Amino acid sequence: MLFRWHNDFFCNQFCLRMQLHGFSILKGLTKILLEGQELDLHNDYEFTQIDYRIAARQLQLHWVRSAGDWVRPSMPPALTLVCAGVQVLKIREASEDEHVDGEKCLSSIGFMWNAMRDDMDGVASHEVSQGCTDLALIFMSDLSIKIAAAEARIHRSRATTITSTTTFR
Questions:
Q1: Which of 32, 53, 18, 56 is nearest to 151 (CA)?
Q2: Which of 30, 68, 75, 131 has an alpha carbon 20 to 30 Å from 159's alpha carbon atom?
Q3: Could you tell me which residues are beta bridge partners of residue 105?
Q4: Residue whose C-alpha is closest to residue 133's, from 155, 103, 111
Q5: Closest by Cα among 168, 153, 36, 167 to 85
């Protein structure tokens, strides 16, 4: 199943150039740089929740720090990626054939060519560029999320329990 929300008026001719505020995606496509700290979303964090607020055109993606003994205690306990001014949101469900915890484990994060909006399998770059402005997140389970939005921020937060949910409001 593929969930798709798309504002054709904005995206047929004019594609947003997403502004990243306070963080960047690093070349390896699994890490971000947040306030000078390199954070590995593949090894050190578990994806827990998707929260999409339709009327506000805001998407929130939530991660909690892994309990693995390799994870530095100085790392933020939880992270939330907040995308505002969402014009395109596409979600491909996870494959049943993949490993059990695959939805929790990010495989890659980066930008994909706008002309390849229907391709949910790839990431072209760690930076926004002309014609390459869709943020793509791909998980080990084949769960894939693609977003075209005006801006994105990452917030540090406190988390005490791991829950997995999807919310559309």
A1: 18
A2: 30
A3: none
A4: 111
A5: 153
Helix/strand/coil for 8 = helix
Whole-number Å distance between alpha carbons of 145 and 82: 13
Phi/psi at 26 (5° precision): -90, 160
Tokens representing residue 135 in the block: 């943020």
Q: Please check whether residue 75 is in contact with residue 154, taking contact to mean a CB–CB distance below 8 angstroms.
A: no
Are 148 and 86 in contact by the 8 Å Cβ rule? The answer is yes
For residue 44, the number of C-alpha atoms closer than 13 Å in the C-beta half-sphere is 18
Whether 73 contacts 115, CB under 8 Å = no
The closest of 23, 52, 51 to 35, measured between CA atoms, is: 23
Query: For 16-25, what is each residue's pLDDT tens digit?
Result: 689 999 999 9
Structure confidence by residue, pLDDT tens digits, 25-73: 998 889 999 999 999 999 999 999 999 999 999 999 999 999 999 999 9
Question: How far is 164 from 117, CA to CA, in rounded Å?
Answer: 26
The alpha carbons of the chain give a radius of gyration, in whole angstroms, of 15
First to last CA, the chain: 19
